[in-house]
Design goal:
This protein is α+β, with helices and mostly antiparallel strands. The protein folds into three domains: 35-59 and 344-416, conserved putative lor/sdh protein from methanococcus maripaludis s2 fold, CATH 2.40.420.20; 108-230; 254-339, Elongation Factor Tu (Ef-tu), domain 3 (Beta Barrel), CATH 2.40.30.170. It is built from four helices and 22 strands. The chain has helices at 12-34, 107-167, 173-230, 354-358, and strands at residues 40-43, 50-52, 54-58, 61-77, 82-87, 94-95, 100-105, 233-235, 240-243, 252-253, 258-275, 287-292, 295-309, 312-319, 333-339, 344-350, 362-366, 372-377, 379-383, 387-392, 399-401, 413-416. A hairpin with a 2-residue loop joins strand 12 and strand 13. Helix 2 runs antiparallel to helix 3 (173-230). The chain is elongated.
């Protein structure tokens, strides 16, 4: 008797088919929704510089080169031009204030001096003669008045006698009138002479003042001429060490030309040039540090030169309490740290080539597994020669790639081989 055979629902073929369909569906879902779409770059981890993000003390500063100069320097310039006739000192000598350093010969100036001196002496002599004439005129006027007073005395006596004789009828009217006329004439002459003496006295005093002023001016001019001649002998303006004094007999020097300088002992200053980007952040009294032979020396900005030349401006720095390193020499170049802030707690990351590529806007952060690194946005505020200060995007203990990103392109993820 035949038996009905039931058809199986889950045949091997059906199971395989359903399984393949499920696998294919999951694969589609993975491709569409679950697959990591970020761009990747495979690289050897040993080729990278990886550092740890730290929380530590941070101080903003920039390194600048400072050239050592004496704190006080007196420059020696030729006040007048001429030919070097004699040299009395040498470069490096210790000189005292007023010591004669060299002599400049200027024949044209010497001839001009002699001509002016002769002319001034003649003018002085004329003024002195004029003043003498005024004094003589004063005594001439006084002598004239004395003579008139004598004449008045005579005519007055004669007139008084004539009055008595005329009243007695002894003399005639004519003799009386002549005596009276002579007396009055002499009185009028005296009054005129006295008035002339007064006017002469006023004029004489005014002329004497003008003459004295002219004589004083002439004498000052004479002193100035002599001083100009003395300038042919160049003297030390201060005591100290003579430097940059390299002259030869016969050299011609123009007026105002630099001849050398005197370095006054007792301190040094540093002259440094700073990028113009920091011109608004540098101020007088700003602190700086110098590391020299294992010790740290404090400095401060003493003077700021506002002129910007070739993208930089100049400053002078002085040592605190004049405590300069022993053995430091003029002309030596040393590196200084110019600080912009005090030490503060901050999250910091070591400087590296990544900054040139990212501008400090993002960085590659290592995954905790250490197998790969990925992009993360960050914010960098201040910086110094060693570290960047990170204000956003990183936490202490995380590790980041700080070496150059030039060969990374724009990959989102760095996978380590």
């Amino acid at each position: 008797m035949d038996r009905v055979i039931e058809k199986k629902k889950w045949t091997t073929k059906r199971i395989i088919t359903i399984t393949l369909i499920a696998v294919f569906g999951f694969f589609l879902i993975y491709l569409i929704f679950l697959r990591d779409k970020s761009s990747k770059l495979y690289i050897n981890k040993n080729q990278l510089t990886i550092v740890e993000v730290k929380e530590d003390k941070f101080q903003e500063f920039i390194p600048i080169d400072g050239i050592v100069f004496p704190k006080n320097t007196f420059y020696i310039d030729a006040i007048q031009g001429g030919v070097v006739e004699a040299i009395y000192t040498e470069d490096g000598d210790i000189v005292k204030k007023g010591d004669t350093l060299l002599k400049l010969l200027n024949t044209a100036m010497e001839l001009n001096y002699m001509e002016q001196e002769t002319r001034m002496l003649a003018e002085i002599n004329n003024l002195q003669n004029t003043r003498l004439s005024l004094e003589q005129n004063k005594y001439v006027r006084q002598k004239e008045i004395v003579q008139l007073q004598y004449q008045i005395d005579l005519t007055e006596r004669d007139f008084k006698r004539k009055v008595q004789l005329y009243e007695s009828g002894v003399i005639s009217d004519k003799e009386f009138e002549d005596a009276e006329r002579d007396y009055k004439y002499t009185l009028k002459q005296l009054n005129i002479s006295v008035e002339l003496q007064r006017l002469d006295s006023i004029s004489r005093e005014s002329q004497k003042i003008d003459i004295q002023t002219s004589l004083s001016r002439m004498q000052e001019n004479m002193k100035l001429l002599r001083k100009n001649m003395e300038n042919a002998y160049v003297k030390a303006p201060a005591a100290g060490k003579l430097s940059s004094f390299n002259l030869e007999i016969g050299q011609t020097k123009s007026a105002g030309e630099h001849l050398g300088q005197i370095d006054v002992p007792g301190g040094f200053r540093l002259e440094a040039r700073i990028d113009e980007r920091y011109v608004s952040r540098v101020f007088k009294g700003q602190e700086a540090e110098l590391y020299y032979t294992g010790d740290t020396y404090k400095l401060f900005v003493d003077k700021i030169y506002t002129d910007v030349i070739n993208g930089a401006f100049k400053v002078d720095l002085l040592f605190e309490n004049d405590e300069a390193p022993k053995g430091i020499k003029r002309g030596q170049t040393v590196q200084i740290r110019l600080t912009f802030s005090g030490e503060t707690d901050a999250i910091i990351v070591k400087r590296g080539g990544f900054f040139q590529e990212t501008g400090g806007n993002w960085i590659y952060v290592l995954d905790p597994s250490g197998d790969f690194a990925y992009k993360r946005s960050i914010s960098i505020n201040r910086q110094n020669t060693n570290f960047y200060e990170v204000t956003e995007g990183l936490e202490p203990g995380e590790k980041v790639i700080v070496s150059s990103y030039d060969s990374f392109g724009d990959k989102d993820k760095i996978i380590f081989k």
